[in-house]
Amino acid sequence: MTGRGVLLVSSSGGVLLETIALGPWWRGQARRWVAVHAPDTAELLDGERVRWASELGLSRPLALAAAVGRAVRDLRADPVDLLVSAGTGVAVPYFLAARILGVPALWIETFNVIGRPGLASRICGRLATTVLVQHPHLLERHRRAVYVGELY
Asked: Can you tell me the distance from the alpha carbon of 86 to that of 69, in angstroms, rounded to the nearest whole number?
């Protein structure tokens, strides 16, 4: 990395826990977060550098386009070396912005995904530079998958 650090993008709940599980790695990095404000994100990210964002429903194309514009501006204003997320809709505009700007992106396929993943996961998984999977059979689903086992 060039020293600009990592951007971690998360909503609340299980996807936050998947991202937190990588803490032994990201705690050693310069980092910032984009997260959906909720009681668990506020508690678990206390002391972290966080920009609070709204969850994004992907069925609203105009809202998605506006969110991608905001994500591009954010990544240009405060560049990072890597984007990391386990998902939901809040991650999609950042993965699109990362692709536009040439920022490597790491997608974490959540442990509960054993069948067909949700829309945000399908989009971000295709845009990601690398996909971490927690079930070996998911290696077939992603071209750039790395099996890491259960994160927590």
From this structure: 21
